[in-house]
Amino acid sequence: MNAITSAPAVQTVHVPLGERAYDILIGPGLIARAGAEISSRLKGRKAAIVTDEHVAPLYLEALVASLDAAGIVAAKVVLPAGEKTKSFEHLITVCDKVLEARVERNDCVIALGGGVIGDLSGFAAGIIRRGVRFVQVPTSLLAQVDSSVGGKTGINSRHGKNLIGVFHQPDLVLADTDVLNTLSEREFRAGYAEVAKYGLIDKPDFFAWLEANWKAVFTGGSARIEAIATSCQAKADVVVADERENGQRALLNLGHTFGHALEAATAYDSSRLVHGEGVSIGMVLAHEFSARMNLASPDDARRVERHLREVGLPTRMSEIPGELPPAETLMDAIAQDKKVKSGKLTFILTRGIGQSFVADDIPASEVISFLREKHP
Ligand SMILES: NC(=O)c1ccc[n+]([C@@H]2O[C@H](COP(=O)([O-])OP(=O)(O)OC[C@H]3O[C@@H](n4cnc5c(N)ncnc54)[C@H](O)[C@@H]3O)[C@@H](O)[C@H]2O)c1
Ligand SMILES: O=C(O)C(=O)C[C@@H](O)[C@H](O)[C@H](O)COP(=O)(O)O
Ligand SMILES: [Zn+2]
Questions:
Q1: Which of 189, 197, 203, 275 is catalytic?
Q2: Catalytic residue among 54, 133, 189, 235
Q3: ipTM tops the 0.90 cut
Q4: Which of the listed residues 187, 195, 201, 263 should we mutate to test ligand 1's pocket, taking the one with most ligand atoms within 8 A of CB?
Q5: Which of 30, 134, 161, 302 is the most buried (most CB within 10 A)?
Q6: Does the beta carbon of 194 lie inside 6 Å of ligand 2?
Q7: What residues does Zn(2+) bind to (predicted)?
Q8: What CATH number corresponds to the domain at position 297?
């Protein structure tokens, strides 16, 4: 055996969106390289780093030092961790601090954190001065495989999840895979639900690969980087084909119509349910609902559930701690979904593993009876 094992290389996924094109760099050591990567792409020499209280003590100073070495002066905004931070209150704080730091259009807001920080600070970057540059330094698995890519940004409203926001693409994504070593197992698993999602949308071979290799993905090393790069490429392909979700981008919402309703029903309380867990339960429900509508075999739903359960994700509403509201309340949340058109529900359903499709005009009565069965 060779005594010298080389470190996994950095992979690049390019997102060819015309004048909004950008690179996603994936691999170890990228926070240390952030200053050089940003200064070679952006003109500005000022930045505001937005992060949360868990990530700040771990990675903020390393990022500031890297920017400093490249001649970029950075202001810091540290927010509470958790889904409740995606709020108007924290949006105002971010806007105030970024303006206070005199961040101009060519300067940038840098999101250092998970999807919560990415969605919130991306929204701020999209509206400050009608748009300043935006760099994502995603630190959770979920953010590295999904939320840092594609330009959906926003906050939650008392009416529902992600209901207020803008599309604002990042100028660069730096997914430093070293930082995943400090992520809790629960949060790693939650991010894995979005990885499995890409297989279930239209990549049955990737789903089968995950079934065989998920332990290596959890352990780290090249299998993990491979899974992240495959996910980013899958997302980039969909986003490039339909940036503003006029059609096929809705596929990325597999499991989310149910999942978002469950997040709203648990009042965005991360101790009960986090986004990826809602997506896991939601994907099983979407496969079961498809079987109920005679679109897919119940065996497919069982296979999806088996895998998600094997990695330790929740797959049933009954696993969510505490009381859930009745099916009618879940249905109210579903009715606020952004995919609703002329009052008609759109769901991402499936004909089998990796054969998801956008199903318009799903009768609310079918969904209600299904939810009553699942959550009597
Ligand atoms: N915009 C999109 O396309 C998109 C896609 C998917 C999800 N989302 C959104 O993303 C959010 C979920 O993101 P998330 O799962 O990253 O949640 P999160 O941002 O709350 O991060 C999860 C937890 O992990 C901590 N953390 C993050 N990185 C860490 C690290 N390296 N070490 C230690 N702790 C770390 C955070 O502080 C937090 O407590 C949801 O709001 C969801 O709606 C958006
Ligand atoms: O990027 C997309 O498009 C997605 O749907 C990705 C989802 O994983 C993500 O959770 C997204 O924020 C959900 O979008 P929404 O439009 O339903 O809020
Ligand atoms: Zn999601």
A1: 275
A2: 235
A3: yes
A4: 187
A5: 134
A6: yes
A7: 194, 256, 275
A8: 1.20.1090.10
The atom number, within ligand 2, closest to the CA of 238 reads 3
159 and 252 assigned to the same domain: no
Residue 161 known to bind ligand: yes
290 Cα to the center of ligand 2, angstroms = 20
**Kind of pairing, strands 345-350 and 356-362?**
antiparallel
My answer on whether 140 and 198 are in the same domain is no
Tell me, in angstroms, the distance from the centre of ligand 3 to residue 277's CA: 10
**Residue 337 corresponds to which tokens in the numbers above?**
């979904």
Which CB contacts under 8 angstroms, 24+ apart, belong to 303-307? 303/353, 304/196, 304/200, 304/353, 307/196, 307/207, 307/210, 307/211, 307/214
Ligand 2 close to Cβ of residue 83 (< 6 A): no
170 plus 199 within the same structural domain = no
Each residue's pLDDT tens digit in the chain (376 positions)?
A: 334 445 569 999 999 999 999 999 999 999 999 999 999 999 999 999 999 999 999 999 999 999 999 999 999 999 999 999 999 999 999 999 999 999 999 999 999 999 999 999 999 999 999 999 999 999 999 999 999 999 999 999 999 999 999 999 999 999 999 999 999 999 999 999 999 999 999 999 999 999 999 999 999 989 999 999 999 999 999 999 999 999 999 999 999 999 999 999 999 999 999 999 999 999 999 999 999 999 999 999 999 999 999 999 999 999 999 999 999 999 999 999 998 988 899 999 999 999 999 999 899 999 999 999 998 7
Domain housing 354: 185-374
If asked whether residues 156 and 246 sit together in one domain, one would say: no
Is 20 a residue of the active site? Answer: no
Instruction: Indicate whether 50 and 73 sit together in one domain.
Output: yes
Report how far residue 237's alpha carbon sits from residue 150's, in angstroms, rounded to the nearest whole number: 10
Write down which residue in 181, 199, 227 finishes a domain. Answer: 181
152 tagged catalytic: yes
Helix %, strand %, coil % of the chain (to 5): 55, 20, 30
